[in-house]
Amino acid sequence: MSNPVLSIIAPCYNEQDNIPKLYERIIQVMETIGETWELILINDGSRDRTLEVMMDTHQQDPRVKVINFARNFGHQTAVTAGMDFASGDAVVLIDADLQDPPEIIVEMMKKWREGYHVVYGVREKRLGESKFKLWTAKVFYRIIYRITDVQIPLDTGDFRLMDRRVVDAVNAMREHNRFVRGLTSWVGFKQTGVMYIRPPREYGETNYPLRKMLRLAMDAITGFSYFPLQVAIYMSLFLAILSMLAIPIVVILRLTTTEAVLEGQATTLAVLLILTAFQLFFSFIMGQYIARIYDETRSRPLYVVSDTYGIRKKNKHHRVIGPHTREEDEEADD
Ligand code: UDP
Ligand code: MG
């Protein structure tokens, strides 16, 4: 079977109600585009009927393919698996909850045909999301933009089209704590954005609680910036200057008055507490980097596949742990 032009990748965690609707809208969009396509659904350890719904859709339409993870590995890892298995000339990453309107793919394909290698969706507006989410997202994107070494465009999520060249380049990077949009910016190539309005989730609830958002932010920062490690040097310079000023003052006070210095115990305690807090904070930052170094040195697989339906691994850079790692499968594939 020849490769499709477009591979659409949708990571799914408890999305049983959204999958039929997603499938329907993709069918409509792809009919207007008139190119061959595949839809790769990754079941990221869902606890509802997501897998059953996926298999039904696959049985009904073999262009729908299923990767079933052995457990929940997280959104970014699910996207990575989709990219490893995708065979299209271009790949689109899309959320399963219809917050990334499939209709935008038309415009993305047009830009791709014009010669762009990455076409990312820029969220012009986000509807139906809490003030807290809007604010954290805004702050997050701006911090990342400021302190990372690659220029990750503002207000873009993972919704994007990537040329096969970009997909292969990103697939060759097997780092564990993945920030996919950072990796796709890092590789370079010709990139452009298309604006879209992000609607609220169709069914279900967000699977990104604060804990996961912080984790993603840490991965983005540690993956693409040394800034947090370098902050300590500014702090120490500041404190060095402060103590150069303070020490003579203390000495003079000690010599000229009898009580001023003795009475300063509360100040001493406060300074000590603050400095200790800073030290612990920087130990935490270093711990974050060290933990990630540890992750990389263990070089465990990024994910474990339990089953696949209608699809085989395409990425040659990576061993996939799961039923389809057998040699004959890989050979039969080419
Ligand atoms: N998702 C996933 N694994 C997870 C969490 C989320 O595959 O552990 C998927 C989810 O099904 C959805 C996409 O990632 O398709 C984005 O998640 P969500 O809509 O919960 O995030 P939000 O849009 O609220 O940021
Ligand atoms: Mg969502």
Q: Describe it for me?
A:
It is a single chain. The chain has 334 residues and is of the alpha/beta class. It folds into 2 domains: 6-206 and 304-333, Spore Coat Polysaccharide Biosynthesis Protein SpsA, Chain A (Alpha-Beta Complex), CATH 3.90.550; 227-298. 50% of the residues lie in helices and 16% in strands. The chain has 11 helices and 8 strands. β1, α1 (18-33) and β2 form a beta-alpha-beta unit. It is elongated. Mean pLDDT is 87; it is low at 325-334. Bound molecules: uridine-5'-diphosphate and magnesium ion. Uridine-5'-diphosphate (UDP) is lined by residues 11-13, 15, 44, 72, 74-75, 78, 95-97, 99, 201, 206-208.
Number of individual domains: 2
Gross morphology is elongated
- Total count of helical runs of at least 4 residues: 11
Query: What's the CATH C level of the largest domain?
Result: Alpha Beta
CATH architecture of the largest domain: Alpha-Beta Complex
CATH superfamily of the largest domain: Spore Coat Polysaccharide Biosynthesis Protein SpsA, Chain A
As for the CATH topology of the largest domain, it is Spore Coat Polysaccharide Biosynthesis Protein SpsA, Chain A
Instruction: Spell out which ligands are present.
Output: uridine-5'-diphosphate, magnesium ion
How much β-strand is present in the residues?
Answer: 15-25%
In N-to-C order, the SSE pattern is EHEHEHEHEHEHHEHHHEH
Instruction: Give the rounded overall mean pLDDT.
Output: 87
Strand order of the largest sheet: 7-5-6-4-1-2-3-8
